Amino acid sequence: MKIVMLGAPGAGKGTQADKIAEKYHIPHISTGDIFRANIKNGTELGKKAKAYMDAGGLVPDELTVDLVLDRVKQDDCKDGYILDGFPRTIPQAEAFTAALEKENENVDYAIDVEVPDENIVKRMGGRRSCPNCGATYHIEYIPPKQEGICDNCGETLVLRNDDKPETVQNRLKVYHESTQPLIDFYKELGALRTVDGTQSMQDVFDNIIAILEG
Ligand code: ADP
Ligand code: AMP
């Protein structure tokens, strides 16, 4: 099963992708997490990606597409995977579709998690992330058991650099300009499914499971 998560930054793609990955035992591949790990480790890729990410822009397609194509060739992806945060532009989606077609493969489901911009601003402002294991919380909606501490690994949670209010507005603009057109792209491929992302985390998950098992 190959799944692409669509939706604005902060819509809940990563939260749901984690739960889907756990249920179906397939890897959750987040390009944002991959870039953040590269920044943390001081790699060449991380150095190139950092300025784009801090400004709320997109990392160039040429740095992103090959990274994902290499990742999905790895052994743990043979029964499927969930992509979260990729593709984010039409050229990325075209390159990815062409690479899959070469192998007679396709994306089974592109799940669009719909959340209006007003809710997104609150979601990103309250998001707290674990810099160690990547777990995500929300100070109000999905709080950790102990304030400011990761449930999984005990690390101190942080507000991501690009979740600051001045960057969030740019990320939303970039989303509407560059990423939202992917909804029609996957609709034309017959893979698009839409869920109401304003519901509780569990209700969104139940909707997604109904789609995948329907
Ligand atoms: P994305 O991966 O799309 O950027 P996240 O999964 O990181 O989004 O979610 C963004 C923020 O919203 C996080 O703080 C997360 O805990 C919170 N969140 C996710 N799903 C829901 C939901 N259904 N209701 C309320 N808050 C949510
Ligand atoms: P995310 O964790 O998905 O919110 O991504 C954080 C940031 O990483 C984005 O704002 C972009 O700067 C960068 N990024 C992640 N995925 C991509 C992608 N597919 N294409 C370009 N930039 C990306």
Strand neighbour order, sheet with most strands: 2-3-1-4-7
Residue stretches low in confidence (pLDDT < 50, at least 5 long) are none
Helix/strand/pairing class, anyone?
A: alpha/beta
**Cα distance, first to last residue?**
14 Å
Mean pLDDT: 96
The unique ligands bound to this protein are: adenosine-5'-diphosphate, adenosine monophosphate
- Please state roughly what percent of the residues sit in beta strands, choosing from under 5%, 5-15%, 15-25%, 25-35%, 35-45% or over 45%: 5-15%
Tell me the total number of β-strands: 7
Order of helices and strands: EHEHHHEHEHEEHHEH
Note the overall shape: globular
Task: Using the CA coordinates, give the radius of gyration.
Answer: 16 Å
Let me know the largest β-sheet: 5 strands, parallel
- The amount of helix comes to 40-55%
Helix count equals: 9
Task: Write up what this structure looks like.
Strands 2-3-1-4-7 form a five-stranded parallel beta sheet, sandwiched between helices. Strands 5-6 form a two-stranded antiparallel sheet. The chain is globular. It is built from nine helices and seven strands, in the order βαβαααβαβαββααβα. Strand 5 and strand 6 (136-138) form a beta hairpin. With 214 residues, it is α/β, with parallel strands linked by helices. Helix 1 (13-24) packs across helix 9 and helix 2 crosses helix 3. The structure holds adenosine-5'-diphosphate and adenosine monophosphate. The site of adenosine monophosphate has 19 residues, from helix 2 and helix 3.
